[in-house]
Design goal:
Elements (H helix, E strand, L loop, with lengths): L33 E4 L2 E5 L18 E8 L11 H11 L1 E8 L2 H31 L4 H25 L4 E5 L3 E5 L3 H4 L9
Antiparallel strand pairs: 1-2, 2-6, 3-4, 5-6
Helix pairs in contact: 2-3
Length: 196
C-alpha cells in the first residue's frame, strides 16, 4: 500500500488520507473527504457529514438542507451599481447544496429567531399602515411611524440574516466547501487540511 494510504492517514470513515495530492481535481477520488483547519471545516461538495450536530457535537439524525453560495468579497465593490453586482455575482458565484446535521436545540433556536425576524418585519409594515391611518389626525405621530418603518425593517432583516444562519461559507471552490460556524469538538473529528 502506498504511503498516501497509510493507516495513520485514516482518522475516521468520513475522512481520507491527509497526505493526498491534487485535492482540487475531480479525478482525485476525494468525494468523501472532510478536513479541518483552524475554525474552518473543509469538505468535498459530495461528502456526507457524520450524524453529529456540527454546532454541539451531539449525535443527531436531523438534517437541514441548505444551498450555500459564495463569491470573492471584492465583488461587493460593485454594489455602487446593484444591477451590475447582481449580474456579475450570478456569473461568478460558486454554490454547494449541503445537508447540515443539527440537533433539536439548535433547530428550535433557528425557528425561534426566524419567527422573531418575521415579527419585526410585520411590525415595520404595521408602522407604515399606522402612519397612513393617523396622518390626518397627527402628522407628528405619523412621521414617527414612518421613521420606525425602515429601522424595524432593517432590524428584522439583520435578525433574519444572522439569527437564522447556522453556518456560512468562508469560501467555495469547484470541489470543496470551506465552512465557518461549526464547533471545535466537531472539527476535531477530522484530519488537518493538507493543502496550503
Amino acid at each position: 500500500m502506498s504511503s498516501s494510504h497509510s493507516p495513520e492517514s485514516f482518522v475516521n470513515p468520513y475522512a481520507v488520507s491527509s497526505n493526498a495530492h491534487s485535492l482540487d481535481t475531480p479525478e482525485s477520488g476525494f468525494h468523501d473527504a472532510i478536513f479541518q483547519r483552524g475554525d474552518l471545516l473543509i469538505f468535498h461538495k459530495l461528502a456526507r457529514l457524520p450524524d453529529f450536530c456540527l454546532k454541539s457535537n451531539v449525535p443527531t439524525t436531523q438534517r437541514l438542507q441548505r444551498r450555500l453560495t459564495w463569491h470573492h468579497p471584492l465583488l461587493y465593490l460593485l454594489l455602487i451599481s446593484p444591477l451590475i453586482y447582481i449580474l456579475v455575482a450570478l456569473l461568478v458565484s460558486k454554490a454547494a447544496s449541503i445537508q447540515i446535521p443539527l440537533d433539536e436545540r439548535f433547530k428550535k433556536k433557528r425557528i425561534r429567531n426566524m419567527l422573531i425576524a418575521w415579527g419585526i418585519v410585520f411590525a415595520s409594515i404595521g408602522c407604515l399602515i399606522m402612519a397612513g391611518t393617523i396622518e390626518t389626525q397627527s402628522k407628528g405621530i405619523a412621521l414617527c411611524f414612518v421613521i420606525l418603518f425602515p429601522v424595524l425593517l432593517l432590524i428584522g432583516a439583520l435578525v433574519g440574516l444572522y439569527g437564522c444562519r447556522v453556518v456560512y461559507p468562508k469560501k467555495i471552490d469547484s470541489h470543496f466547501v470551506f465552512l465557518k460556524g461549526t464547533c471545535a469538538e466537531f472539527r476535531k473529528r477530522f484530519p488537518e487540511w493538507p493543502n496550503p
